[in-house]
Amino acid sequence: MVSDSSKTLRLLMPQWQGGNNPAYYLGAQLLNWLAPHSNDTFEEVPIDRTEEGLGVERGIFARSTLLKQAHAAKGILKKHNPDRVVVFGGDCGVELAPFAYLNDKYDGDVAILWIDAHPDVNTPEHFENHHAHVLANLLGVGDEDFVAEVPKLVNPDKVLYVGLNDGTDSEKEVMKQFDLSVVRPEAILKDSSPVLDWLHKTNISKIIVHFDLDVLDLREFRSLLIANPSTYSSMVEKAPTGSNMETIIRVLQDVAKAYDIVGLGITEHFPWDSYALANMLTRLPLIGDINKTEKPSFNWIF
Amino acid sequence: MVSDSSKTLRLLMPQWQGGNNPAYYLGAQLLNWLAPHSNDTFEEVPIDRTEEGLGVERGIFARSTLLKQAHAAKGILKKHNPDRVVVFGGDCGVELAPFAYLNDKYDGDVAILWIDAHPDVNTPEHFENHHAHVLANLLGVGDEDFVAEVPKLVNPDKVLYVGLNDGTDSEKEVMKQFDLSVVRPEAILKDSSPVLDWLHKTNISKIIVHFDLDVLDLREFRSLLIANPSTYSSMVEKAPTGSNMETIIRVLQDVAKAYDIVGLGITEHFPWDSYALANMLTRLPLIGDINKTEKPSFNWIF
């Protein structure tokens, strides 16, 4: 239950460098635009929109830009000191600062539901896009400067994957090292009991939720990186069945009725159609520039 | 060429009743949100968002509401008396008032490019959703009260279909009656000459463009009614190949470089994913109402 005097911060963080695709920038802005109006405190983390600093450094694409943006998010959290945080991404890395803040604020007395098709425990040795590193960082694994952003490491016994469908070999090793718990998509089809039972055993009252939209099935929801129109038909053939949106909504509602959700991050919104439409509009008569014959490589909205 | 002293009105008309689906309301708002900022005069036509007046009357769904909204659009046009109009829909019916206004203002000295998979010359006897009637009305065919909104009827010799892919038997009869010209999707694959050659023969300098997004191929752009996720795979099997977005952009740029485009309507944006996402957000913890277990039948943004 949320008390009246508690304070929720809604944080928009249109970070795209962690997935190396500017469509994540639009995805975050659009997610925020689609969300119901709220009287919560609202802040937008300043995100670099230049092509500077986009090289790979120490195995991480746009490393120093990502660190700078995580520091900016941390500064906003420190300023407001909220009890609860909603984060709209952006790539999954947007959760580093807010989840580290919440785990520290509640002194580790939180469980994390990692609702995602992927485990997000990759490391710079194996994968250069930081959006797949963020849970590793929260557990103390990976680039030391990112790990240094986590004042209190997350207890791996208090992490539950929900809807996990995929993962690289190197990620499976980290999962094994920490003995991370997993609820597969098929286990929540009927009801939410696998999640509720696991939470009951943790004996914890506060929950942080990571919700990567790619946990959803690409046949139902197509604003996902994997649902690229140009390769969609083959992806539909080979991708495992993800979760229905209604299933995830029901799990989150069931959890929220029994526990105090203190953090919710929604990430990886990749709106293919809106991105294409925005690009098109910048080149149409009476609306845009009819001399722009080439599709721009970066298309920022605002 | 657009002179500096000329005035363009950007009209947002999130009408959805003509297609009987509230997702068109969101589609119009989103289209407007995605468009580049402009200093043109901007107006939003007030659109009914209740479930009142949604029955079929004289063969047309929500007939009197649609007429009321067309009158409101006409009032805005009269107030501003613009030289050029951009219309963001909404269902195709949003173009009735602005195209009638422009054809009257320029005394019929305009050609209309009807860029659409469908001919939009249906009538109440054959089809109850008005969004398929609008070109018929502009030509003087269909419900008399809608036709009465067209002070100067469009000359059928000055209408060119571009990208047409479909049509009902009753529509084909109207097309034959008026001997309407057609450029098929395959004819503009290489260059825009079939459109430019036809325009050259009309000996007209001003152009109105109707751009129904459903002219685009559903395999490339999925924010279309036809791209319903639940039936998409069978639609992909059977739907004829539509036009690429880049092809339509090139045709419009080529036309705009040689002629004076005085009207541009973009219609039938049907954002499946954004609609689902907006619905989901209204039901999530920390953002919406966790007791809303049912998907709302109408989901308005704003």
From TrEMBL, chains A, B:
Keyword set, alphabetical order: Hydrolase, Manganese, Metal-binding
Domain of life: Bacteria
Secretion signal span: none
PROSITE patterns associated with the record: ARGINASE_2
Similarity-based family: Belongs to the arginase family.
UniProt lineage: Bacteria, Bacillati, Bacillota, Bacilli, Bacillales
Any one Gene Ontology molecular-function term assigned to this protein's record: arginase activity
Pfam families assigned: Arginase (PF00491)
Name of the molecule in the record: Arginase
InterPro entries reported in the protein's UniProt record: Ureohydrolase, Ureohydrolase_dom_sf
Keyword Metal-binding part of the UniProt annotation: yes
CDD domains xrefs: Arginase-like_1
Cellular component, GO annotation: cytosol
